[in-house]
Specification:
With 378 residues, the chain is α+β, with helices and mostly antiparallel strands. 37% of the residues lie in helices and 24% in strands. It folds into two domains: 190 residues, Gcn5-related N-acetyltransferase (GNAT) (Aminopeptidase, 3-Layer(aba) Sandwich), CATH 3.40.630; 173 residues, Gcn5-related N-acetyltransferase (GNAT) (Aminopeptidase). It is globular and about 60 Å long. The N terminus is likely disordered.
Length: 378
């Protein structure tokens, strides 16, 4: 494939002399006969877990969203997954994994945190997105939703546009995250934290709180029970126990998870569901009791998890979702303020974009999701 060519799913390149205001070519209707990519590229289904994880972890921007075990979790839920690699000279140079979701608004494939590749290699990028298009068509999807592991910038948005993608009406995974640099010492991180955060840690130290970290069935069972109570108190819809346990079991198989538990006098105050994958430690879920809030247990769990992350060679601690300071009506505003108290850096990923395969059916999706987003205040 010539580097100047667009991916085949976009159809022929328009002339640069196109009149201003002319319509951008539809991604689905412009499909033409598939072109062969550069003969040096070979794209196939991934079958080797070790090779997959080795490639994904070698990229500093990666996290568990493209890990092998995350898609084993989806398989355990009875989902269809797509896991593809690009080979060149017997080496993996690109990869992406997606899960096919069946919803009333339309069947679609979700690719969160991917693809993982060298984004400066336009020939490779075109080949990968061409393959994504083909896999979506093969799975009879209405659209493919992609949230790439790219920091938000004018150039990243322009790239999505050139690839024929449209901004999605709903997010896919976290698009705005709080990040802590684990190359900093604990003392340096605490120096950058708010006075309130440091005060809570001192309070926790005085309260004789016991912290454990393990992967026992008892811990995930306790987490599921506490999450249900936490959801009732905070008025959100809890995950099912089956959903959480299958996710836990998938990551436990790869030794990538720990449940952190804070107790006082034998009573659970708070728990964190932590995933350690490659360069990143992820605060995936966190729950607490009313007593846990009183005793300021949560900050202590995070500091212990950071210690473990450094031992595992992680360079980044991802607190995950935050919202803008101006979004005071957002339902996640309060928890965002808690995360900001760590002194985290704020990272905005390129938001989810959709590769539309069936334009007429996609309009239903767009209407439903736009209304849902407004109703949920997200």
């Amino acid at each position: 494939m010539n580097k100047k060519e667009v991916p085949s799913h976009l159809g022929p390149r328009r002339s640069r002399q196109s009149p201003r205001g002319s319509r951008t070519m539809s991604r689905a209707t412009a499909l033409r006969n598939t072109r062969e990519c550069d003969e040096a590229f070979f794209i196939a289904d991934a079958t080797n877990r070790i090779a997959w994880d080795s490639f994904i972890k070698s990229h500093e921007e990666s996290n568990f969203l493209q890990s092998w075990d995350f898609y084993e979790f989806h398989l355990a839920r009875g989902k269809k997954i797509v896991r593809r690699i690009v080979m060149k000279n017997d080496e993996i140079i690109g990869a992406y994994a997606g899960v096919v979701e069946t919803a009333k608004r339309g069947r679609y494939m979700a690719i969160a945190g991917g693809p993982i590749l060298n984004w400066d290699n336009q020939e490779l990028v075109n080949a990968v997105f061409d393959d994504i298009y083909k896999q979506g068509k093969k799975e009879a999807c209405v659209f493919i939703r992609i949230r790439p592991q790219l920091p938000l910038s004018d150039s990243s948005l322009e790239l999505m546009k050139k690839l024929g993608l449209k901004p999605a009406p709903m997010y896919l995974s976290v698009e705005y995250a709080g990040i802590l640099d684990l190359k900093k010492t604990e003392e340096e991180i605490l120096a950058g934290a708010s006075q309130g955060f440091r005060r809570k840690l001192r309070k926790a130290a005085k309260n004789d709180i016991e912290v454990t970290a393990d992967t026992t069935d008892e811990s995930i069972n306790e987490f599921c029970k506490l999450e249900k109570k936490h959801a009732e108190r905070q008025k959100y819809v809890a995950f099912s126990g089956n959903f959480l346990k299958k996710q836990f079991e998938a990551f436990r198989a790869g030794k990538e998870i720990l449940i952190y538990t804070a107790k006082k006098d034998g009573e659970i105050l708070a728990q964190n569901f932590m995933i350690f994958y490659g360069p990143e430690a992820s605060y995936h879920y966190g729950v607490s009791s009313e007593l846990g809030t009183k005793y300021s247990a949560a900050p202590l769990l995070h500091m212990r998890a950071m210690e473990e992350a450094r031992k595992r060679g992680c360079i980044r601690y991802n607190l995950w979702g935050i919202v803008g300071l101006e979004e005071k009506s957002h339902r996640f505003y309060g928890v965002s303020e808690f995360k900001r108290s760590f002194g985290c850096e704020e990272l905005k990923y390129t938001p989810a974009h959709d590769l539309i395969l069936k334009p007429a059916k996609y309009q239903v999706t767009k209407l439903v999701e736009t209304a849902r987003k407004k109703k949920r205040h997200v």
